[in-house]
Amino acid sequence: xxxxxxxxxxxxxxxxxxxxxxxxxxxxxxxxxxxxxxxxxxxxxxxxxxxxxxxxxxxxxxxxxxxxxxxxxxxxxxxxxxxxxxxxxxxxxxxxxxxxxxxxxxxxxxxxxxxxxxxxxxxxxxxxxxxxxxxxxxxxxxxxxxxxxxxxxxxxxxxxxxxxxxxxxxxxxxxxxxxxxxxxxxxxxxxxxxxxxxxxxxxxxxxxxxxxxxxxxxxxxxxxxxxxxxxxxxxxxxxxxxxxxxxxxxxxxxxxxxxxxxxxxxxxxxxxxxxxxxxxxxxxxxxxxxxxxxxxxxxxxxxxxxxxxxxxxxxxxxxxxxxxxxxxxxxxxxxxxxxxxxxxxxxxxxxxxxxxxxxxxxxxxxxxxxxxxxxxxxxxxxxxxxxxxxxxxxxxxxxxxxxxxxxxxxxxxxxxxxxxxxxxxxxxxxxxxxxxxxxxxxxxxxxxxxxxxxxxxxxxxxxxxxxxxxxxxxxxxxxxxxxxxxxxxxxxxxxxxxxxxxxxxxxxxxxxxxxxxxxxxxxxxxxxxxxxxxxxxxxxxxxxxxxxxxxxxxxxxxxxxxxxxxxxxxxxxxxxxxxxxxxxxxx
Length: 587
Description:
Beta-galactosidase, Chain A, domain 5, elongated, disordered N terminus, eleven-stranded mixed beta sheet, about 25% strand, 2 domains, about 575 residues, about 35% helix
């Protein structure tokens, strides 16, 4: 029976290793090993081409197709061509808008550095010869200017540079505070009296941008069209992934979408055509997800001249363009604007870090782009615990240590019973060896005597598996928390650990983890079988090598966990040995 207990413990340990390997392969196995191209410096000259370098002639695979019969083309653009991109700077990002189409062609996140050794902001969206990742929106359909023969409309704005801190002319109340709001209107007019005002609304302290299209129909006929919003990205590498020596780490890179009935779905770039998105949804969203960051469109409301704004049902879709760009977006229902009336249609665009609280408020399921895998309930609780302790100590490393102590305290009663059984196994090991020598040839007699001994000493040989089985889901869940939570990106602890989401550059923590694992094994009863004993002795070495390239925050958790286990097991071992000594004295 003892041999089977050892085999069970070994099996549990290898299950942990196997699940970790699966998690690693899921997140990192398909990572592109090509180096990330350096972002080109944004120029203020507006190219005569679309953001991805295509000519301005209408490209069917770029601008979505309207769902109405195109009986006539939209009125040709008459506005002069602007010479500069429109620069917008808030407290959170620096953003550029191309007047041609009113697309967002570059976003620099000011509160997130390019890497832990750089003071340059992280570039999320960009459009240059090396990389295309842009957000597009406009009006298509029967009279939509984005369906014009002359290509996309060119909007005019008062200025080419805006700063929220100085140019905001309005404010809102939020959580008892007055925050600044910057509205940037861009105007496009046609010769027949149609005026389209495309407004970008930026709010202090918020990443979401509300994009509104106001159609003012001063013509003599009905105007008809649809709003579209889409994200276009090439197949280039994920700049959010990190280089870990011989490993290049990066999590899921691809599309995602959701609605209230089906909150979160992932869609690989390779499946944008074969398993393409093609659904109608109210309260839905579309996004492109990468490590730590996300860009998303959330359809909003439609407001006609008479009546209040109402949430509309949008059509969500994905596709590949003719030049193999990955496009995911939405289109609104057909909007009819009779002569002499006005209509407004809007949507919200998010480009920034995957902050769960903000994404949750934006759309149902969007916060699940912080993908904690199949153990997300445990991972969510661990993250809440980390946030709580971080609010007290202000350091994510110490928060991990405090969280580990809390988890061990919660599991203490269950693990104590198991450790007590293991301690008794250690105490009766000499008796087990004696019985093996006496009844070794008679396996049935040896098994009977061994079971009688277990019953007399109240020992469960399988109980040694329990602590590891309890820790396994917590360990895996914490792995996903460290990998997916942008709050821990480049988070320092002490001394040489300046990024808890990256490996220990000097391998000190993995070596300490291996040492604590070895000490812990020495406190356990040693296997009687020589082969099992050898396997157990090399397990700390195997796990040390295995942990060399894992996040230092995860290794820190395992060190603290092992250290508390050593303390707990030592106390229980002494207690059991004292009980045995007292019984011997009494007898």
